[in-house]
Request: fold
Amino acid sequence: MPITRISKELISRASSLLLKLNWRVWYFGDNAGFMGLEAADYLLNTAEYSNYALGMLKGWNARRYPRVKYDQTLPGIEAIRLATKHADMDLLGSIEEHVNWIIGHRKFKGVYLTDDDYPDLIWVDTMSIHPPMIAGLGVYKQEFYDIASRLAMGYVELLQDKSGLFSHTYDIIKETSNNVHWGRGQGWALVGLLETIKLLPKKYTIRQTLVSNFEKCIIAVSSLQNKDGNWNTVIDEEGSPIEKSIAPFFVIVGAQAISLGLIKSDIKENISLAMNATLKSFTKDGLFNRVSEDTLSGNYSYYVSIKNNSFSPWSQGPPIAAIYWYNKVRDTLNMN
Reply:
């Protein structure tokens, strides 16, 4: 299904499902849902979806004290963009208070330990949330750039190995990663690195180091793509199930990376394959199919046992964002 044949009706149906999700305000993956809400507005020339997101943020702002479980998963950089767009200084102030709360947590080798259920685990999922959110406030206070860049490097040093891929978790008691290259986890890592890189001033020497780490990961991921444009749920294990959420994540980060000149390798064909795989995973009703459910930390056997029938912010948001980013860059990058 070529990208040129995407109907506005399909995009509208897919986007409308974002409004039917069980938003927990907040939980892991909500940031991916916000990516979809943000993209839906641009694709459909409306303000309906960003207003819905803004409403959730205003609801959080009104009830933010006392803190509740999973508040650390606030979709931060997306919230900053919305608050800035609407000149909502009260919301921006609350996000800054939230960031100060995050960086008040105990640390292990530069990474904040914020998980409610597993306080001794560091998750690649959170890499997509905290460094970009903190960097997003650097325009107001430069110290946030410093904190964000060090935090991003902390994740890299603990979770990325010589293959370029990221393990899902790191156990601070055992001082070792779980050594499973979870497919969607590569998406979280790449999103976190990309959004942080985009926000850091070029004068920061650590920015180029993060670019190098980003490039190693995206090249490693591209080399493991299947012929149909998808990837396996344990990305470097061919026998593991297909995980459909990886393709849209790859489009989102890959399209931006080559348009920004962040990578030297040519991954245009990989992006086109991933985009077509993404489109084929929609039902006629706009539902994005075969995405794994909430995934904890474990061994290989655990990851391959996870059911792939999720209807969640992380299943429905990224494919809509992928359509947006592909359409945005395909002409300038001469992609099919």
In short: The longest strand covers residues 121-123. Residues 296 and 325 are 29 Å apart (CA to CA).
